[in-house]
Fold each of these.
Amino acid sequence: MDSKNILHIDTVALNEEANALVIIDQTKLPGTVEILELTKQDDIREAIYLLKVRGAPAIGVAAAIGVYLAARDIKTQEYDVFLKEFQAAKEYLASARPTAVNLFWALNRMEQVVLDNKDKPVSRIVQLLHDEAVEIREEDIRVCKSIGEYGLSLIKDGDGILTHCNAGQLATVRYGTALAPIHLGREKGMNFKVFTDETRPLLQGMRLSAFEMVSAGVDTTVICDNMASQVMKNGWVQAIFVGCDRVAANGDAANKIGTSGVAILAKHYGIPFYVCAPTSTIDMDIHEGKDIPIEERPAHEVTEMWFKERMAPQGVNVYSPAFDVSENELITAIITEYGIARAPYTESLKEIFAKKEQARKK
Ligand code: MRU
């Protein structure tokens, strides 16, 4: 095992000298901590598609840096030509994955910089794109810390916490969303007993959350996805924290496949089920969860990946949606950087955005 502690490394960064996107290759974790420096658009898009960088906020930050790097390479001083090539680069990165709205949120924010500054020289626009990408990255750290503080107010020292997939530091720049309360609690000397669902088929829970929690010195237990009910029945779980890839205006939340099953179990056992969502993950243009586009992944990720040999008969059908939607009535609260939203979410999420707007005007 590589001795580098991933908690000391930001998950996504910009190397200013090399003009490269810097990420930890998450497909190699936990066995190897390999840092990748990517400069080519094909490599950046592929890193997102293959989940070398993954998790909604981290994907957004990677795309913002990626499209800035693309803009640097556009060889023209004519605004109209620049805009066209910038938009082509934006669309290319946007096509990497469909569910995490942060990808589109970050790319749209970058595009807005280009649109708002059409009167400026192209070289100045590129500088402004740099500043925006850096700000999106810095903002992610502040947002996650704030979500962590709100989340921490809902739990107490010694609690058992169950999580699904990885919505930790590895899914953001720092801290994470669903695991941020644990990291911040650790900084304050608190301790929790964390259960990480392994999260089939790509094992983000076992490979990433468990690794991250063990690296932080947290008492961590990996369970197979089908063990969650038993662990809850045993009385070992006082709260469930998960992340999300897109929240609809009514509070329905898409997250890693299997999350909705955990939400249903939580309701059955009377355990609070918290969804941690930066406002960049809340899509007020989508009314209900059923309208959230759900990515389907290739069959081999189910039948072959991680096994020594193929574990399914040749010719069998495979259905592999990467995300599912937990309906709002299953969600105890949605924790954002502007506070904790509770049902009815159609109202409380609007209030969250009103607070965001107020903060922006200050
Ligand atoms: O397919 P992944 O690994 O990108 O899925 C990640 C998740 O489902 C996370 O829970 C979500 O993106 C929130 S990350 C803070």
Note: Residues 51, 54-57, 100, 165, 167, 171-172, 176-177, 204, 243-245, 255-256, 322 surround MRU (CB under 6 Å).
Amino acid sequence: MAEETMISKNFIEQEIDKDLREGVYDKVVTRFPPEPNGYLHIGHAKSILLNYGLAKEYGGTFHLRFDDTNPTKEKTEFVDSIKRDVAWLGVDFEEELYFASDYFDKMYEAAVTLIKKGKAYVCDLTPEEIREYRGTLTQPGKDSPYRNRTVEENLDLFERMKNGEFEDGSKVLRAKIDMSAGNINMRDPILYRIARMSHHNTGDNWCIYPMYDFAHPIEDAVEGISHSICTLEFEDHRPLYEWVVREVGFERPPRQIEFAKLYLTNVVTGKRYIKKLVEDGIVDGWDDPRLVSISALRRRGFTPESIKMFMELSGVSKAQSSSDYAMLEYCIREDLKLKRPRMMAVLDPIKLVIDNYPQGQTEQLSVANNMENPELGERMVPFSGELYINRDDFMIEPPKKYFRLFPGNEVRLMNAYFVTCTGYETDEDGNVTVVHADYDPETKSGSGFNARKVKGTIHWVNADTAVKAEVRLYENIVDEEKGVYNKEDGSLNINPDSLKVLTECYLEPALKDAKPYDSFQFVRQGFFCVDNKDSTSEHLVFNRIVSLKSSYKPNK
Ligand code: ATP
Ligand code: MG
């Protein structure tokens, strides 16, 4: 079965078409190379789906490669979470799973090759001196006094660096390119540094580690990647990427193509900021549903399909721009609309007593699970003379155009009968505690009754069979008006009301056995998903994925 193209024809596909036509490559091999130093977020999902989509589209191969060449920040915990997230997005990588640290030997050999060609040298300048000698955007750099060491001396020193004869930071291996190059990345960049750090994969085998700009092109080339697709900040590194694969002598070197990162309005994606939110206890871990890490989106109730749809709508481009969070919300609504049952749930309850309904009687009403999708079938919903309705579906003195319950007014109880409000009770503070009504037995839903019409329909839950639950409502973690970052000090502008917990919600009994990640539409309110961390069969917890109202209009 042909896989659907994940993201529609774009400039990257045009480049690939050209490369295939000209015979530069005979097969498309792409990769996603995360550094295992944090959780993946929605921006990474873009890169994953783009690379995987291209591999599928061209009948090629996709590699998941952990870029674990920097032992300081890497953790096995992140490797596991990244695998879980990539798999959840529907990407099949088990056969093509790689670790950059498996190539340390090859990288070392590549460095030796460069030294032998006179293209790399060991430099003893201090980090400060190296910075000084590098020059600036407007001033060329100066040659290092160690630049003209002989090949033999460099080979000897580099081997001794590897053998641990020198102190951390005392020497580096540098490429010998051009200290006056306009592109600062080409001014004899560092290829290897000395750092005595244990690596999660290679332990203490190495005390020298390659720099990203040297390691990355080699990783790609070793794996036979054809198109190394990365984000725009690497555009200025492309000449170095090309220099490395050419000088090391790879036969069919990969080609780097850059695209613009995905940015979302009013969300926090930077690892640094998320880490701070977690550490400051503002959010409940990396998977807090207000975040847009993939695990947070999953916990909130987003589906892989909705994320793919979002990536298709936002497209791939060379120009930096921001996508609207409302578009992501539109995608999850679209995805769940026909797939999920529509249930009745009362989030802010008051009692509705139907005084003329036979005392002690309960009847079962047959209700369509999703009116727009008959395939989802029907369920039975209990009804009696004591119900819960939402507090805001009743008003003592309604404004104009309020068609819900108020004294004397008749409304339809969704899937049940017409009721007319006959009165209400209040507590000593004047808060409404009970609403009274009479029902008309002739008006049962589905009975064909059409003698009169009512303007308002409200939903309800039968009181004595209701399931009590906690419902969490979310808003942006940052203040929408002020923007994500504080202009003065760069800190986050936190929205103090980003989480609202409703502890006394009543759901219809069919929701009693809902399991983590199950999601539903709660009619008139939104889509909700059972929380995977805190929900138990005794204490159900739902996250609101998205409300039903939309501020986003797709331009189809
Ligand atoms: P962050 O800066 O958010 O922590 P990162 O770039 O440091 O992310 P890596 O693990 O180095 O994270 O990235 C893996 C891949 O994901 C890289 O190829 C990177 O270009 C890509 N990527 C990261 N952020 C985005 C984004 N917002 N949109 C698209 N691709 C992204
Ligand atoms: Mg990074």
Note: The first strand starts at residue 29 and ends at 32.
Amino acid sequence: MTKARVVPEEQIRRQMDFIDFIGHMNRDKTEKNGEKCKAFTHTYGCQQNEADTQKIAGMLRDMGYEMTEDAKQADVIVLNTCAVRENAENRVLGNVGALAHLKKQKPGLTIALCGCMVQQEHMAEKVKKSYPQVDLVFGTHALWRFPELLYRTLTGDRRVFDISGDAEGEIAEGLPVLRDGKAHAWLSIMYGCNNFCTYCIVPYVRGRERSRRPEAIEAELRELVAAGYRDITLLGQNVNSYGKDLDLEIDFSDLLRRLNGVEGDFLLRFMTSHPKDASHKLFDTMAQCGKVAKQLHLPFQSGSDTVLRRMNRGYTAEQYQALIAYARSRMPGLVVSSDIIVGFPGETAEDFEGTLRVVRDTGFDMLYTFQYSKRSGTPAADYDDPTPQAEKQARFERLLALQDQCAEPRMLAYQGKRLRVLVDGESRHAEYPYTARTDGNLLVYCAGERLKVGEFADIVIEKAALRSLYGRQQEA
Ligand code: 5AD
Ligand code: SF4
């Protein structure tokens, strides 16, 4: 198998030169106007996109921009887009439409779109034709060239579009990152996806699976721990195939074990896993590694074997349930979440009953439920889809109601329990002024005199709601 191309260091250094050029330009502007140049970023979609935005923000910071949360104040606006469902795309286009007005008031404003939505040629074309307020468009493969692309946009008199890059993809190391929050950090371990589930656009816009070298991942983890991050999520579209493309004998379980050996008090999470590659070895490793959170996000998408086959998922509902049963046998109290698609083309009432059955039998702590959205270019876009939208909506609502019903006793069971949580922010609750996360990533509103953001604390759960818990710190 071919190894993913790592972007040569001199090319990354060249980007750093562009960061410096823009930095000089911004300093001149600041001297003239007496005000720092400002940048605004917004992320649509998944955690991988959030991690990418943090790289863009890191580059912007190094160019001398001050980050602002008010788009109206910004000199540069970067929207990192998502293509997974149509409503995500519609939201992006709606927001870009609204920016036309701002651009009129402030002609010096630079508007950039990047990420999965614009990596699709038809979307880049649409933006070129119908959204003249957008100055710069770059796809997922061009992320590391952002400094050069922005420089060309700022100094040239033409709009810049770059959605080049082949599907094999590359790995860019050494880009600056601006993380938000003090407790939690994303750590990408691989990029792309090879699974080609028939509904999914991701493999087309993010390219083939490519794993970062374990030493690069470990070095970044050490930096994060040294900087005080305590809750670190390893990211990949399908982390279970980590290492398959490397010239090393290493799989995801081996990587977890290696990272678990890094000194310090921190929690390791990971997402997303694919049931077809999740192995007993992985669950044994999780059970044995003290720093690995006892939390598993394992999307099953549908409880019907017919639908699973047509989705190209590579497992049956029974195999999925057996996996969860094994994971729970190794890790009692494991927090389990999943993704489900309702209304896949041709899903029958009976197929849907299968999904309800898996939900009822498995008992998930959290479910992320989606209505199927047709993505052009994917195989499922050509499948017959006779089910009326009203019927799909009714199924969707039944699923939500069932999940609420199942989650209630699971959440109530936490009352009175003592848990270790990581305090990660302040809340708007007067009585419970902090937010925290359990080992299983459940949200807890917390009270306690000695709580501190970024630190672990022992709390007792006082109340439970459907999607969150309420707890109080224990006396030392
Ligand atoms: N329509 C609806 N949901 C989708 N997902 C991916 N593609 C689609 C689509 N075309 C969901 C899957 C995946 C999650 C990230 O998004 O459930 O696990
Ligand atoms: Fe999409 Fe399937 Fe890859 Fe997930 S595993 S990103 S659903 S193709």
Note: Residues 9-33 form the longest helix (25 residues).
